[in-house]
Amino acid sequence: MPGPVFLAGDRVTLRPAERDDVDFLLENRNDPAVRAGRTAKYPSGRDDVETFLGGTMGRNDQSIGLLVCVDERPVGYVLINRERMGDSEYDRGELAYWIAPDESGNGYATEASRVLLDHSFDGIGLHKVVARAFESNDGSQRVVEKLGFTREGTFRDEAYVDGAWEDYYRYGLLREEWRERRSE
Amino acid sequence: MPGPVFLAGDRVTLRPAERDDVDFLLENRNDPAVRAGRTAKYPSGRDDVETFLGGTMGRNDQSIGLLVCVDERPVGYVLINRERMGDSEYDRGELAYWIAPDESGNGYATEASRVLLDHSFDGIGLHKVVARAFESNDGSQRVVEKLGFTREGTFRDEAYVDGAWEDYYRYGLLREEWRERRSE
Amino acid sequence: MPGPVFLAGDRVTLRPAERDDVDFLLENRNDPAVRAGRTAKYPSGRDDVETFLGGTMGRNDQSIGLLVCVDERPVGYVLINRERMGDSEYDRGELAYWIAPDESGNGYATEASRVLLDHSFDGIGLHKVVARAFESNDGSQRVVEKLGFTREGTFRDEAYVDGAWEDYYRYGLLREEWRERRSE
Amino acid sequence: MPGPVFLAGDRVTLRPAERDDVDFLLENRNDPAVRAGRTAKYPSGRDDVETFLGGTMGRNDQSIGLLVCVDERPVGYVLINRERMGDSEYDRGELAYWIAPDESGNGYATEASRVLLDHSFDGIGLHKVVARAFESNDGSQRVVEKLGFTREGTFRDEAYVDGAWEDYYRYGLLREEWRERRSE
Amino acid sequence: MPGPVFLAGDRVTLRPAERDDVDFLLENRNDPAVRAGRTAKYPSGRDDVETFLGGTMGRNDQSIGLLVCVDERPVGYVLINRERMGDSEYDRGELAYWIAPDESGNGYATEASRVLLDHSFDGIGLHKVVARAFESNDGSQRVVEKLGFTREGTFRDEAYVDGAWEDYYRYGLLREEWRERRSE
Amino acid sequence: MPGPVFLAGDRVTLRPAERDDVDFLLENRNDPAVRAGRTAKYPSGRDDVETFLGGTMGRNDQSIGLLVCVDERPVGYVLINRERMGDSEYDRGELAYWIAPDESGNGYATEASRVLLDHSFDGIGLHKVVARAFESNDGSQRVVEKLGFTREGTFRDEAYVDGAWEDYYRYGLLREEWRERRSE
């Protein structure tokens, strides 16, 4: 039996990952296609994946991490990371996601992100959500641009991909922008 | 086999939640309809739910939290929270509850609260029980008003709900008021 | 298979509670009829009940707590509590017990107490055993009086029961009294 | 040498309490006149006072607690308490303060609160600050009313003072209210 | 410099014991004359005495223990012990005290107890305070009787004193009794 | 006696902070003028400052934090922060610094940063160093621009300063850029 739904969109539902989802998480986090978008360089073991169980990203109870499901079948993972660094607590989170390779191309990342952004702005009350996409990752850029994010910078040489340094883009979306866009 | 009954009303029984109740607790704590009344913004994982097992709300052995059951079937949760804050220990507790969406509308919240209030005033000897209800939550206001609570204040802008600040009402019920009402 | 017998009477045997007895302990400790005699105000969870496993009452290795059994079937619990208070350690213990509601009225409490008193005076060498009974609890008073306890005081307003302060009686039984009585 | 100033008003400076301030904190926290405003029922020892050293109220690194000084001489203590309770994180804090009896009547509580409110609203960005004052504590009511707080409720029988139950008032001040008032 | 005063009577002041008071506490707790009233059988070391520093009796933050002082000179110790035992939390405490031998006979125990009883009933709101006195300890009986305590029982053979078992008396004083007496 | 020098420039030396430097660190970290550049919202206590003792920024042994000294007199602090975020560890660090108000305007921040950048690129072998400056902080922007950093983005609304959201600039400096500049 799948766990309880926390948020729902038209096609996708978002729910806390449970122990039964560990195989799905492990397989996809280690998959080269999924890792490419995250430039994940190290393998995930079962222990690493436990951070992703339960809905609040390990001990960080202000982040939210949810399994993306379609017809109760897990297809990916979406999260708002709110790690507090030093003195700052500026009502901000970072959006990230991955979709299993054989489920990609269906718009699930966009829909799941939209649902989680609604919750982040209207439920939690965040002022801003940021995101990153590697310069080479057109798919990820399309997703954040479709969601209404503005590109705020180009970080030169911050990823080492396929034997060379690569830039990534940094995006930002303010609460008021999200609301205007939604009301159009 | 369901766990032992701690308190009983006409239709409902209240018993400590056990490990077998975790699925029920998880599903309902994450359900958007149940969360709305509590404005719960973060998902509950299995670990979070363990706080609710055993009848005394985690390590806080002066609080009481019990599963509400009808015909041995769990339908909700009711609790008297007695977190001590600072110097105060004024014989006071806060009533809270939730009912599973497909069991709501049957008066179970009112009956379960009544049973736990009897125990709180006559068994434990509390001097006062308080409660909160969001301004938009008519159902919850009706329950506490039916129980005889007096509205003692309106807290402006203390909840962020559906993208806007909302007020909530604060209620109080004194032991003598409870007794008079019961004896009528 | 029930655990090993520690003490035996004509009908009852006393043995350390084991993990398989947790359901019995839980159900009865939470039962309103059993709680009435103890004025237990808070629910017991599985963790709370672990204190009662093993025969020596949690970490207190000078107390003794044993399951009362009839034909290997658990029917209640009896204990000699020797919590040390401050400087005093006057070779004294406090007797307490409860019997499951559907097993009460058969004299099991009296017989189990008698067996444990024999052990306390002759086995451990206690000088005195004390006991308490609420003024409203005739059954418990009959048990301790049948065992030969002397009422030594009336403690006014020391229990809050059913919404009012109630007195309780304090009893004492000296080793020499126990021995005389037994030899009669 | 006194510790470093964190915030400054016209006459008062606010700085983290240090080990050398323990005697001042102890003496005043135990003083019956200071305790009356807080209805503090238990004595403070040196260990208790350590919570108040360092500026962030023990382990709670989102609260702020500062010594109020005049001409580098400590005269009181002011704090914004931001204990998170349950699911709520509504950008809110509670203001509290005390002034040493021989320094009272000079408006130090009002000025210190004003400085800390400026920091809470403009520096930290809180949405609301709340406060409590016992019905019998005219001085404290005057301070919060002078600061622009609105009375949002009367909590009946929530303090036990001098042998009788007493009400206290609950106040709230929104960021926008603070700004309007300041700009007048 | 002596520590801060927590409660004050006509002649005596009560304040939390501090590290500088350890010698006074050690000397008197070990003094045979002081021990006689408490039947203290074991020596106190410096570590044992730390329990008595700070005003709240070790980690038990609902008990109160204070040094009795006359003209800032320590002359004894008075306490309300509120150790919770099992399920009971009946708004009750136990009064105890000792006075240094060369300061006894001046009524300090009575005055210090009176001040602490006022605080226990009117400040904390206890329903009852109990006390014990050995049958042989006329002085201690006179103090509690002068304070208005009622003898509620005689506990046979509960102290072993000078080579023989001795009884002690148990006393009780209800809040309403204290108030009536005071108003006479 | 000041501790051993770790890195040296023409006028400044950089050395690990020691216990004797706690007063200097405390006073400046709490100083409103120093805090303005860091938008530090919470006070620093002595315990917080211990993170800055020893040269490697608390438990993070890949970061470097050093006291900036002139003639053995501490004038500020400079650090390369290498907190790892998620999977990334791209040979990158973030430069930060502060100078005591009465020592500012002498170019110490620039010189200390230059010395630490030399060590970061040539000693540690970092590929890139990043930095941030609030839009309102002209002084800090001048320092990083003088050092050769390129502005890579403008982060909208990521700081809450003096009651309003403010942008900050994000800068980057690659190892090859640093070397070219130095060889000019």
From TrEMBL, chains A, B, C, D, E, F:
Residues 12-172 form the N-acetyltransferase domain. InterPro entries: Acyl_CoA_acyltransferase, GNAT_dom, N-acetyltransferase. It comes from the Archaea. The keyword Membrane does not apply. Its EC number is 2.3.-.-. One of its GO terms (molecular function) is acyltransferase activity. Keywords: Acyltransferase, Transferase. Belongs to the acetyltransferase family. RimJ subfamily. This is GNAT family N-acetyltransferase.
